[in-house]
Protein: Ras-related protein Rab-13
Amino acid sequence: MAKAYDHLFKLLLIGDSGVGKTCLIIRFAEDNFNNTYISTIGIDFKIRTVDIEGKKIKLQVWDTAGQERFKTITTAYYRGAMGIILVYDITDEKSFENIQNWMKSIKENASAGVERLLLGNKSDMEAKRKVPGEQADKLAREHGIRFFETSAKSSMNVDEGNSGKPPSADLKTGDKKNAKCSLG
Ligand SMILES: Nc1nc2c(ncn2[C@@H]2O[C@H](COP(=O)(O)OP(=O)(O)OP(=O)(O)O)[C@@H](O)[C@H]2O)c(=O)[nH]1
Structure:
């Protein structure tokens, strides 16, 4: 029987509660958005298969609860991830400051050398912006990782129609040409 996919990538989204992790995944996997806020309980995942140069790439995207009380559950999933996406909200300074803590959590719980990516979500809310893009860009550079601003609401940078590569492919190759990222 033919295999359902050629490659499997496991990605994990982390970040403070309410920054939009679930919405980003729903936009990415189902091209949908909802304004209602239902906080994630523990952990959840969605799957999307993309076709790249004739290869079927299965993306398993894990959604973690941002709330502190779920930390023991969520950190247990770090080790299995090939890529970890750190998300903050551009209208919420605290969520950006906490990125340092999420970085620390990766160091303590994930496999050494795991690929990381920083996303500043809710870019559609420019009028309420608290975190300048330059500041996040600087932080990303300090950690040697890539950074994008996204909007799960408007789809900005959560679009499959750019490079055609999954985020993990860009993460792995560090392909700077594809300035957009498929998930972020
Ligand atoms: N304007 C705007 N609102 C967004 C965006 N992404 C998410 N939201 C809203 O922000 C709220 C929280 O979104 P979630 O995706 O549930 O946040 P989360 O990070 O998964 O939260 P936890 O599950 O508690 O960790 C919801 O009311 C969403 O509608 C965005 O890009 N733009």
